[in-house]
Protein 1
Amino acid sequence: MASPTEPAGAGVDWEARWQAGDTPWDKGTAAPPLVDWLARHPVSGRVLVPGCGSGHDVRALAAAGADVLGLDLSPTALAHAASFPPVAGERYRLENLFTLPPELHGTFDAVFEHTCFCAIDPARRADYVAAVHAALRPGGHLLAIFYLDPGPEPGPPHGVTPAELDALFAGFHLEHQETPARAFAGRERRERLRLLHRL
């Protein structure tokens, strides 16, 4: 079993992949399901985006009114994120979600998930849930776009089933779920958007 201090993406050299430009998951824009959600729902408060990469989702959330912190394991990814003109005071930090410093525990109103959960070893999913739970204040929300299966499109390596999500996030209340109307090409109807709140 992996050590609690191992990075979420242990086994993959994320920095090497960013340096090589081997990042098929980076589509150059915010995730369509997030863009559509933000068009229908106001957002505010402190939001954490783990595995933020180039920060496209971070900037979309910041533009919608959130105070956003993006985390990533790759300095090159974060340098790329910081190269974009700032939108609304969004910040980036080199950090391992699994070992968040104590000063970040219980301080976020929401976590947005898109490409972190699918990239970790499925054996570490319970650790991921615990890390998100620790980052959120009581009653805080997790807005997540989960990949239901890896499919043929390059990028997300580990899919998940709705039943697995129900079991993993038993410490959260499911407020809403939907199959996004829009997605990146190749991911249509292979994603499930869920809004959960921490109990």
Protein 2
Amino acid sequence: MAVIDATGHVVGRLSSVVAKRLLNGEEIVVVNAEKAIVTGRRKTVLAEYTKRRNRGSTTSRMRGIGPFYPKRPDMILRRTISRMLPNQQPRGREALKRLRVHIDVPEAYKGQTFEIVEVAKRAPQGPVLSLGEVSRQLGSKF
């Protein structure tokens, strides 16, 4: 089982690497999901996530018509990874069951060394937002 620290990793790059490893049969735990970053200008990033969040109907007559987008950073990261898997096929659904995403570091993983995905790590060059900031703007109370 691999434990990956998402601190400073770009969400999309991390998701693609994790999805590929899940399809190969690995069990993966991602910690510190709120510290993963999204690149781009603040206004543009928040507008895109708000647009996704508001998509779908919430009226009682139309309840159940999605897609519904999560607010919490761990669920945003999990959804991003799941959309990179063939989730309509049995192998994609089985792969998603091998994934755990956590906000912060749970007690069970406190003493372990965390893996860093070099391809997804980014030095701060341009404007970035953490998933925690995006989540708070969407109204999460994590």
